[in-house]
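Form 12-C: Joint structure prediction
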Amino acid sequence: MLYTDQFYYLGLIALMPLIGALINGLIGAKLPRKLVDVIACSSIGLSFMFSLISIKALVDNAAHIGDETIYGHLSYTAYQWIYAGDFGVDIAFMLDPLTSMMLLLITGIGFLIHLYSVGYMSEEPAKWRYFSYLNLFCFSMLLLVLGKNMLVTFIGWEGVGACSYLLIGFWYTDDAKAAAGQKAFIVNRVGDFAFLVGMFILFYETGTVDYVALKEIATDAASMASIAPIAGVASILIFIGCTGKSAQIPLFVWLPDAMAGPTPVSALIHAATMVTSGVFLLSRMNWLLTISPEAMMVVAIIGALTAFFGATMALVQNDIKGVLAYSTVSQLGYMFLAVGVGSFTGALFHVMTHAFFKALLFLGSGSVIHSVHTQDIREMGGLRKVMPWTAGTFLVGCMAISGFPLMSGFFSKDLILWSAFSNVHVLNIKGVLEQNIGVIDLLTNTPAPAITAGGAVDVNVLALVVGSGVGVLGVITAGLTAFYMFRLYFMTFEGEYRGDEETLSHAHESPPTMVIPLAVLAFLAAFGGLTGWPHFIVHWLHLPEGLLFFEHWYEEIFQTSNQFRIVGRFGAKPYVYEAIATAISVGVGLTGIFFAHRFYLVQPEVPGRVKAKFEKLHQVLTDKYYVDEGYDLAFVKSSIKAGEGLTFFDKNILDGGLVNGAAQIMVSCGRILRNMQSGDVQRYATYITLGVVLSLAVLYGYIS
Amino acid sequence: MLHALMQTGFPLLGLLTPPSGAEYAALIPGAIAALVAMLVVLVDTFHRPGTRRDYLAYISAVGMGVVVLSCWALWDSTIDRPVFHGMLYLDKFGLFFAALAAAAGGLALLQVPAYMNFQRMDRGEFYMLVLFSVSGAIFMANAADLLTVFIALELMSIPVYCLAGYMRRDGRGAEAAMKYFVLGAFSAGLMLYGMALIYGVTGTTNLEYIGINLSRVIETGAVETGFGMIVLGVLLVLSGFAFKIAAVPFHIWTPDVYTGSPSPGVGFMSTVVKAGAFAAMLRVLFVAFEDPMLRGGFYGTGWVDVLFFMSAASMVLGNTVAIMQDNIKRMLAYSSIAHAGYILLGIVAAGARPEYFLFNDAVLFYLASYTFGTVGAFGVLSYLGRKGTTVETYEDIAGLGLKYPFAGLMMGVFMFSSAGIPPTAGFVGKLYIFRAAVDVGVQTGEFAFIGLSVLAVLTSVAGAYYYLRVLVCMYMKEPTRDDWVEASESKSARLSLGICAALTLALGILPATMLELSREGVVDFQGVPASVREVQREGGEQLKQIRDAAERSREPAPKGEVPQG
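Section 2 - Result
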């Protein structure tokens, strides 16, 4: 196993986009427009190449022990960032199987989106600025996933927030867009605050923020006990940080507004990469999260609720990007559901497939917007005839996200839903199984030997309710997803065109720089899931183990969580149950597609009738459950009120009432301040005296 | 008495011998600043009317650069006892602040030509005032005696009062100067009264003697008779410092004065004056008022507790009221109150017990990061303008980020730093302060410290809102009028902004050097009692180890272990 700290390719991966951003940002305005494109695309392209080389090195250096392959990690310490006493943090990077996939997503999909942007932003005068931001975003995102300690991740975490803010507000002329950018940033700051506090707690319990060192502590039976008491709190705080970045309840409000930015930005940042960083972080810290079953439950419940509510809001959107935005919220919910039920592999699998199909769908929608210059799907329809490539690839994306059998979304969603029903959190500490301690955790009634033997596990009621509850919500959401996605597809590309003829005559297929990324992504969205087949298929058809590649790739990362803390409650060979679950989710998905077909192609009058019948519900959904209004009332208004109050307090009570009143008394008593000309100064001086007197009184009060 | 002092290990001999040649080194930084000021006065006498005075800015900046260099040259030749009969210190702590004050002064002065040309107030006095004030701040940081503290305080403050009223055609300038002067005199009077009380109890003005005598007075049961006087004295001295650093409840002058004063001057007074006052405050608190009874915290109620509440109030009030402001200078005034709160948090943590003394390095680092960010932010406001008008409201800067990319970019760096967003200096500074507070809270089990640091993190979230608003206005709003504001052509202003931004980023990305310097400054802080000296010694050894380790890692790897990849 290669275990060097000098694998400097990792630094190069992050450096390339930074160089691109600096060149374009500093002198981009003076460069030829073509060169700006070349610099932006080649910098991220080089980054992609270096990622491939690094991952190859990781695989080449893996140790093979029996059947097992241990990849370990490659790392590179750039320099000591902060060093003082016992508090030392390096700028250090780490590459392991978990980072590998994120690297490929960021640089690979990032490259495609840069390419797409060349066409999409071709008429934008400040293209250099756009590309500079986009490269800077990639740099920050790479820092986030490559970080070897939590602080480097945090720098990237803040960086992607800032870049996302810059890119959302790119077309600054629009007040609403500027506000959207600001909202995204502030909501994210709230999450970051929790993240920072969580990190501090961990640091003070363990004395390190290094992932490798933390993992050692959290997976060792003896030292784990020391962080067990704070694991729940720290996990929840970090999870709150993730709800900000990954748009979960209650901090999801910024993501739909963030669609104000250019479409490629939505595809890269708000679908494929940044919003999944929360899932990445929780997976990175899975050994911490799985210590606390309660925290896991919270994550699962929040994820399931987000998935469900996001899907319901997507049902009534008429903005093509709006549907995709809420769909993203909903799909992110799935990923957190997966994390919460202990299927980290499922979560990451979905991160990958979602990146493929959602980037594809966003880019497709961008292609449509580029062509017809509207985002309202009520003014579209029948566009398949003018833009066949876009329509074809979009259809692939819709099928993938709906879980159509053998498309990528089918595999990942299936794994998540199956895990929700089957997984149960049993063990807290490695080594406990071997020591044969009786009942191990509050979530099961089965003694340890039975679990080790691979038998079925008797689950307690709470765990059962939560597990199947989130599972059922997930299945319902799968149906809703299929329905709204095909609603979107049918209203955009099928049927009759509903806009004005003038626009239709100008509508056209997009240029090759936009279509090529679509085609590549469509290929990935269709076949990207074939790396992780359901177990029962592999087992029953005696297919090679290679079809479970995705799972094996991560085995080592989630070893502790998967082997010691999370087990399937149907025993070692739950293939029948698994098949039933798969059948249900496929059935639900197909039903959704069927209804969308009936409602929006065959009988287009039905949706209107349904809407009329459930007017109130429709209104609630259109108004997004009034969450924005609630926040406005609870936080924005109240902090403005607090500010006003304090200003008033500062100006009038302290300065005016109290001080002035006191001054009046003093003046009338001793006429001390009479000779001072300026009333203001007089009052201020009195105020300072009062400050001293007050402190003194308090001090004396304490002392005596 | 003399005998008793000998027993406590006080370096008494230093007080009895005439100053040696080496002791005059303590004067060098401050004296250079004063000499540069006089040079500027002299040069300005021969100024040809009708030409610009940009060269004065350059002369001053070079002079300040020489001050910084002198601090660098003196860095390793510090003296471990007070010099000039216990009037001044020559230690790394003082040199750190001297260099900081000189750097901030020089950077602020480089911005002056741009502002003065917009204002048509191109006169030489501005430079002289700032330079004398820098000299005062330097002596303040090095003071070893209440008399030196007070004289240096006045030397620092009086020029700043004049600066506040520099825009004499502007009614607000006159108001600002008047307010600042009257209130400054008032608070200085309070402080002086406090010093007199302390002198009355202890019979000395030397900080170390005061420390020793106060402990004796308190120990020997004179508490019943003299303790009230001591507490009043401590409190009055503290209030004088609190006024200068603009901590709640002594902040009330800040917004008015900042709004009325010329922008480069505000950049100067919000950083150098604050830094000087913080330095002298640390010195007085940790040298003279270090008795556990006065310190408070875990031993009762004392200045740690007073500062604790000041810190909390400053953070909350500063950050909340800043949200409401429409004037950027006013917003920055309230934000500087909030920053004072964060710095006080560091002092509270470091002051809680003698063994936490080294946490003061967070205070030093934070002041450095705050200084460059703030001088820069006011510099951008000076850099933009129009004949006879100043730029200070959000409306004034609307759309300027795209029209003048340089100004926009610079403002972005400074606002990000002030808001504490990585990779800028502000982030590392805040991280350090919070870490110190949390560490003390965890080690002592006092929840109040953790509560205060959580409050600090929370209020800094609010801070993101109003700092960001500046950038939103610069980049995302349409200019209100086409011909409203233009960027100055002054090269010196651009140079100053560039340096500020470079330092702000450098302190964020490569903070190691500055952290080491601030740690050294704290380790070499002279005059502390024996218990703290032990902590300092350990800190010094730790520092040495770290440096050795870094030295080793910098050496090329032995052959045969060529890095792979």
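Section 3 - Comments
Chain B touches chain A through 74 residues (CB under 8 Å). Residues 557-565 of chain B have pLDDT under 50 and may be disordered.
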